[in-house]
Design goal:
By secondary structure, the chain is of the alpha/beta class. The chain contains six helices and twelve strands. The strands form three sheets. Strands 2-1-3-4-12-11-10 form a seven-stranded mixed beta sheet. Strands 5-6-9 form a three-stranded mixed beta sheet. The protein is globular, with a radius of gyration of 17 Å.
């Protein structure tokens, strides 16, 4: 697949306060791209300033938010989102949402950036974690399914489309026949049922930002990391 041509190397940060940041680092460092990718583990605002893009890893969303607040990172992260690409996986997807349900007592700090409502632990507890093959046209070698790893994964309850915001592009859905048997797809929006139920959405983009409700970093397949670089990061450098 063709890459956007940029005149310099790329620095991608990974929010490294809690969660699977090391796995994202390994995936990024293994990519074969025309431009060298430098990886920064972001733990403070100074680290963030060096980045062209950011990944917020899976982990525990309330813990990540609390640690970001203690590190003085919440507002710098919100400012970063206004100009540069951010990809959230699982817990990171929760933090990028406009609104969240099923929060812990006391609520949930969010960064925003993507016009969706999500629910924490939407497919159930840790013991109800599962894997599922996903067919995704935009990936390199799209005929090979991508194995989605869902661990206490959030679900997308609603898309909030608006002419004031970039359009939402659905990248991947969980096939209905692969929904855990203990779970049911609930109709949240009028006309939102069956194959088009928002809860079946497991990856989407809005403008320069992307979220996946599963953990691409916990596989040996780096195609989602390549996709983020190719479609979100490099075009933003032009």
């Amino acid at each position: 697949m063709a890459y956007v041509q940029v005149s310099r190397n790329v620095t991608i940060g990974i929010l490294a306060l809690q969660g699977a940041f090391a796995e994202h680092q390994t995936a990024l460092q293994g990519l074969s791209c025309q431009k060298k990718i430098a990886v920064v583990l972001v733990r403070n605002a100074e680290d963030l300033l060096a980045c062209d893009a950011l990944i917020i890893p899976g982990g525990e969303s309330t813990t990540i938010a609390l640690l970001a607040k203690l590190a003085g990172l919440l507002e710098p992260l919100r400012t970063f989102l206004q100009k540069k690409p951010v990809w959230g996986t699982c817990a990171g997807a929760i933090l990028l949402a406009q609104a969240v349900e099923n929060t812990k007592k006391g609520g949930q700090e969010l960064l925003g950036g993507i016009s969706v409502t999500v629910a924490r632990n939407g497919w159930g507890s840790q013991v109800e974690s599962f894997e599922a093959p996903l067919s995704i046209d935009g990936l390199r070698d799209p005929t090979t399914p991508f194995m989605g790893v869902f661990i206490r994964a959030p679900v997308v309850l609603a898309l909030h489309r608006s002419t004031e915001n970039p359009p939402i592009e659905i990248i991947a859905r969980l096939p209905i026949n692969l929904v855990p048997k203990s779970q049911k797809l609930m109709v949240h929006d009028e006309g939102d049922s069956g194959l088009y139920n928002s809860q079946s959405i497991v990856a989407l983009r809005q403008g320069r930002h992307m979220l996946t409700t599963f953990h691409p970093e916990l596989t040996k397949d780096s195609r989602f990391h390549e996709y983020f670089v190719r479609t979100c990061v490099l075009p933003n450098l032009l």
